[in-house]
Amino acid sequence: PPKGAGRKKGTASDGSATPHLPTLAEQLSYGHLPRPFKNPYYNKNVNRRAKNLKAVLSQEREREKAERERRRLLKQGKAEAEGQMELDSTGGAEDRALAMDEEEDVPTYTAIEAPPSVWPPRHYCDITGLEAPYTDPATGLRFYDKSVYQLIKGLSTSTAKEYLSGIHRRFHWSFFDADLVIARGVSTVVK
Hints:
Strand order of the largest sheet: 1-2
Order of helices and strands: HHHEEHHH
Strand content: under 5%
């Protein structure tokens, strides 16, 4: 049998059927409301596709190469102008040529080296790994609250040195969980 042969075609309504009642989702929908923040003349370009990483990196290399060449020509032009003005210079041209070759540290897609951050470094608790605003003056261990400080006060100097060297860092959670629960006064017994 041909496809759709078993289906009955809908009859044309003569107006006697009940009109379509909107569902609750249609009633609460914001889809039909105007959007004043959208540009009515915007046409999305459906033919434009996202570039893959290889294309982006090759374009970035070309851009960097063109920028280096532009800077080199600019510096070369300045050096020639200075050379014409300084008739009795001796050996300074070589130093300027070396200074011209130095690259500026500009972070790009291909070279992500950037200058150091201007934000202060974050310090973390040597016992728990949480952010630590305090340092114990006797041992030099960092801690984040008084319960950890109580634990640090009970440590021997050799154990404190081990924490400072990083030996206990991989064991800190299993070592500290029971003490943390007791220090906070949390009851582990469920009634």
